[in-house]
Amino acid sequence: MMLAAELVPHAAREALTEASRGSALSLHARAERLGAHLRLGYDLCGPLEQLRIPPLQAVPLRRDGLWQHTCLEAFLAVPGREGYWELNLAPSGDWNWYQLDGYRRNLRPDPALEALPLAVEHSTGALRLQASLPLPPPLAEAEELELALTAVLEHADGGLSYWALVHPAGDADFHWRGGWRRCR
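Above: the chain sequence. Below: its structure as tokens.
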């Protein structure tokens, strides 16, 4: 399975200033399934000084609330099943892996993943983040997966922009399965 795509910002970005709206950011995301593992990569390019990007921590931790700041994300499910998983990756190296029973229902950390080392490269105008994680048995055993690659970017003015493969009408909603892709 391989999915590579340019993520697009959600059209409704009222929280951003005029300067943030005019930025020329681009965000490319990719996912590759390698047996029972998933390899993810995100490349953010452009005037990154317009963003709040947390520095890489010496000892990254599993943390809640990463999506309230710059955070790169993935959502995974087995087609036809209501439950799914959410992965949050911060440029600081912090991360979290959640399991849900259904649409935004019973979000809880999945204890099966105890550590997730991230490779983060940050330079002027470019941020690259890569991760590889073991898939839980229901995902590892499935022939096909539903997958969404998404991101929240925090701008210097504190406003957030939401990036995804595709967005629903109305508010941004990464949990909306209509924006996920089926991948073998």
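Residues 2-183 form a domain with the Immunoglobulin-like fold (CATH 2.60.40.1190).
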